[in-house]
Amino acid sequence: MPRVLTLPDSQHQVLSIRAKALVFNDPGSQALLAQAERVAASDATVLIIGETGTGKELIARHVHQQSGRSGPFVAVNCGAFSETLVVAELFGHEAGAYTGASGSRAGWFEAAQHGTLFLDEVGDLPLSLQVKLLRVLQERQVVRLGSRRPIDVDVRLIAATNVKLEEAVAAGHFRADLYYRLNVAALQLAPLAQRPGDIIALAEHFIAVYSRRLELQDVRLGVDARAALLAYSWPGNIRELENVIHYALIVNRDGVLAARDLKLSAATAPLRARQVLNDAEPEPEPEPAVADDALSRLEALFTELYEANPPQLFDSIERVLIQSAFAHCQRNQVHTAELLGITRNVLRTQLQRLGLLLRRRASFAPSIASLPRDRSFDESFDRPRLPA
After folding, report:
1. Nearest to 354 by CA among 324, 322, 314
2. Does residue 285 lie in a domain region?
3. DSSP string spanning 290-301?
4. Above 50 in pLDDT, residue 199?
5. Under 8 Å CB-to-CB from 49, ≥6 apart: which residues?
6. In terms of domains, do 334 and 207 share one?
7. Comparing C-alpha atoms, which of 66, 381, 359, 35 is closest to residue 189?
């Protein structure tokens, strides 16, 4: 039986896009587990790299558990908060630091004292906050908002990202000095499609989990279902596999999951199917000449536009670029940002400016003082909680 990592209380996180289980049956996964446990024994800062839904938080929690640190594991989604809110949440605030701050409040660094602070989507942090984070890593002290008194912290930092930070550094979206501070011990999580030995083991785990919830017994995978699962490319990684198994258990009636019960995307299944079922080599990447030809045609179109000299040309081109990329990625902000080579925060700002993404109403944005003070920090904050 392969080793399985799961999120605590994962049955109450049905809407989460994160992976809620991770197995180590594939040789690549077993090597990653061994590396993570070696890293855990040190106090080195860890950078976990991987696509959304590959299990980055699960690996971070395992590193914390194996580290022997006495404090809690505090998980924070850096992309879920505004810049103003995340400063006060990370470093805390004193009474009167801003309007509505009626009392002092410890930040996440203080809450993780003697434990581990996990910063997910660290690539989404704005540059101004990156400077503050770098200072904390260097000095091992935090200063609450509205205070000048430094507070010593003993916290191990684990950061995770689904973007290539080297490219973000080159583009000026991420500080090089912070990148080197974070990238002391790097753990690379491969996409699920590159870990075929984990696919069936994960599927069987989710069958067991959802069979209990649906009060089903003796459900198993059919031969054609196994082939279909191995043939699929899994663009949504582990979270997508969980959804597929959940749906299959709902529609199945004879206790044997068949390929027809699996709700797989027809757009990505055929290519992977040919590779797995026929044991063929992966199709080669497109030749660079294809991209060069497209750029040449684009340059010719730009020349036509220059000659036509339409008003507000730059704004028009920028709108078309962002709008078409957003539509191409089916309005998925993470994938659109990766396609354009920018951070999700930068993309979100552009989408709002161009009217392609509605801004949140101010009346629904909670003040920092309105957030619950007696909050359990051993969970991930995917979004600010609304006041009761």
Report:
1. 322
2. no
3. HHHHHHHHHHHH
4. yes
5. 160, 161, 162, 165, 186, 187, 188, 189
6. no
7. 35
